[in-house]
Task: structure prediction
Amino acid sequence: MSLSPYGLLELPWWGYVLVTFATIQSMFLGVTLYLHRDQSHGGLILHPALRHLFRFWLWFSSAAVTREWVAVHRRHHAYADQPGDPHSPVVFGLRRVLLEGYELYGVAAHDAQTLRNFGRGTPDDWLERHLYAGHPYLGIAVFVGLHLVAFGAPGIIMIAVHLSAQPFFAAGVINGLGHAVGYRSFEMPSTATNLLPWGLLLGGEELHNNHHAFPRSACFAVQRWELDIGWLWIRLLRALRLARVRWVAPRPQFECRRRELSEETVQALFTNRMHVLRAYARQVVLPVCRELARKERHCLPPGTSKLLIRHPAVLAEEARRRLGELLDKYEVLRRVIDYREALQRLWNEAAANRGRALVQLHEWCRGAEGSGIGALREFAQRLPAYAR
Result:
């Protein structure tokens, strides 16, 4: 009697696809909910039983060790796109991160100083020391063996697809393309982008720019038209009392009748500072550029508004040079950028001394309203409406 090449479970072709898709998606779910939102940033608190289920499944299906993953990710945020970032395409080049992202992760994951500085607060129980971290590849070896027994020859392809999914999508696509292509809702000293407005296949990790803007948020969707499938799972788990949300990204609230600045306004602006910056770009920078283009009869260099909106820290040397030339040539653009920088300095003051920040906000608004720049004046007049 000959052995079947299909193992114990012979399935139609779509059955093998479905099983592989399910194992990969459950792995991604463990990464985004447990490793990322719960362990790395603490915006989500999972039930202890669910935490351990994810911890086991990630060790079993991907050889992921909690402390290593968390430490590397926290280091990425601490040095985003600067020397010290373990897998930035700005530092290492996009090609290397796409093709060798998993190797870059491995180097950082085995760095003792990285683990010591950024791995605090992760599990350190007997199972972690003697099984998960002690034998990180035992689980994946059993996972491979079970696939071969259950599915035979098709299992080889299933294993290959499964084992390549996390290095390619997480290490390559998110860490590589997620800092190179896509759209940016929020400007910051990181090149992070949103790959798609609908984070469906990678657990919501596609909304990478939003995450860098609000790292602690348990929900990665910020704009009303964005979808984070990980957040849908969180809502289900919360309804089942298996998860608790500690923090989500704020959405600006407005009291349109309010016309006076107050300490509450300062706090509201500080809380919504990423949204305020985005509003400044849309309500001040873009209208000023359009008006200037009309006056200059469309002689403004292409990409002027993008140069003005982009955070200076992520501009290449050539882009900085062009920006400097624009600011030297057009006084109105210089003033728009100066007022934006002054507004950002206000937030630093707000964190230290709210009363002094209120005085400075009054001065900023008076200057903006008397600047002669219509869009800037209107923006300043809207600020008192921000509410906590």
Summary: The beta strands are 44-46, 198-199, 227-228, 243-245, 253-254, 386-387.
